[in-house]
């Protein structure tokens, strides 16, 4: 499920095999999921961009900008190649309220889920918006990302979005 | 094209199969359809099942459930990690090829040990969405709000759908939620007075997740007529899928449902110019039923009213079983829609019906099947 933008080291399973004094071949048992996926030129570039604090979209076949980007056009299936910087601020196009956050979710206090159209993009990105109560949420409000100080090329490098001041 | 019909159906559904494993609660269901057509496992030309390892928490979990069929002596068998409606589609193709004349299809889901609305986050985009772990109700709420804001439907329309589900589910023994369990919420007005638990969704806008299973037998031509008194013929069937990226889709539409319906022979709400007697939708959120009606060209004709009645067609036109708001079996509810429609036609409560199944987030993938009684 998780992916690494840069790939990861090959498994070390089996390297500790050795013959011991009793003449039996022994090896450690390593329980693992030994698959890596490369994220490719588009998703990989997006994730690398997050690490640098930049958000990329991709130009689709009809000229519109899709962010986050995919490698292929959702309508024509053509390969897409032209990355375009978008955001980082954007506009809330829909929202709901998460009153009881789950452990893995972006924020451990109640927060809003939102579909955000980043500036320059024509599609929506899902993320959390940190506000104190649902009364502070409305469609059309401006939000901007709060970046984590240490970033690793992951969607959660954006800790959450927050209302643009003023 | 060969004429292919549903000739036997059986279902089970309850809030939680506390003590039974999947194989244990599927034995009676599969045995029931075998008995209806007087066939043993080896007599079926093909057997196809639908289920999810993500629910069972185990790889190749469907192999265990094959014990409910009986796999010795060997049988010809396949499995899809999809709702059983897609298993039926695979079997239908096999029969169309002329290789076999009969097929047993079954599917099941036991979600009570976990939280399905959270598990479903694993079906989303693995880079952009799953790591945020949005639950299924929240995604539906985001889509519903877009529909409400655009004026495509109102909160009253959504509540009317939920109220009708409760009323229609009253006499359905498989329903977990109905007018019996919620006697004071059978009108849209009363539902609108309830709290928005995942705004703008109220509890009754969201299907209740339950455990269950379903088995169906299909047969071709004369074999179908030999196996039952009134075969329910599959007149049209097709499935289509929309883009994976939910942020790039128009969430007020279900283009794949419209395409599948057209491919299955539907136009302007009719099948080959003939009106439907009723519809069974797989819409786990109330607003999704309104989108599907719109895609089928039926919403204007129905003129859904505030009391939740189906307009001129009456309550029984849409989801006479109560639909999945009354009980949602993950991996089973789609095939159950076909089975519900088939049973109703067999009982003479209609001659022509549309059954719908969906898969993926927010109506991403849709299957449309038109059924007609002999």
Description of the molecule:
The complex is a heterodimer of chains A (166) and B (374). By secondary structure, chain A is mostly beta strands. Chain A has one domain (36-163). Chain A is 8% helix and 30% strand. Chain A has one helix at residues 40-52, and strands at residues 18-19, 25-26, 55-59, 65-66, 83-86, 90-98, 111-118, 125-129, 142-147, 158-163. In chain A, the strands form 3 sheets. A 5-stranded antiparallel β-sheet of chain A has the order 8-7-6-9-10, with no helix packed on it. In chain A, a hairpin with a 5-residue loop joins β1 and β2 (25-26). The longest helix of chain A has 13 residues, at 40-52. The radius of gyration of chain A is 21 Å and the shape is extended. Chain B has 374 residues and is an alpha+beta fold. Chain B has 2 domains: 4-115 and 210-233, Thiolase/Chalcone synthase (Peroxisomal Thiolase, Chain A, domain 1); 125-205 and 235-373, Thiolase/Chalcone synthase (Peroxisomal Thiolase, Chain A, domain 1, 3-Layer(aba) Sandwich). Chain B has helices at 22-37, 53-56, 62-65, 84-96, 116-119, 136-150, 155-168, 188-192, 221-227, 255-263, 286-295, 299-302, 333-346, and strands at residues 4-14, 46-50, 77-80, 102-109, 196-198, 201-202, 211-220, 232-241, 266-267, 270-271, 274-275, 278-280, 352-359, 365-373. In chain B, the strands form 3 sheets. Chain B has a 9-stranded mixed β-sheet, with helices on both faces. Chain B has a 3-stranded antiparallel β-sheet with strand order 9-10-11. A two-stranded antiparallel ribbon of chain B has the order 5-6. In chain B, a hairpin with a 5-residue loop joins β13 and β14. In chain B, α4 (84-96) crosses α13 (333-346) and α7 packs across α11. Chain B is globular, with a radius of gyration of 19 Å. The mean pLDDT of chain B is 94. At the A-B interface, α1, β6, β7 and β8 of A face α6 of B.
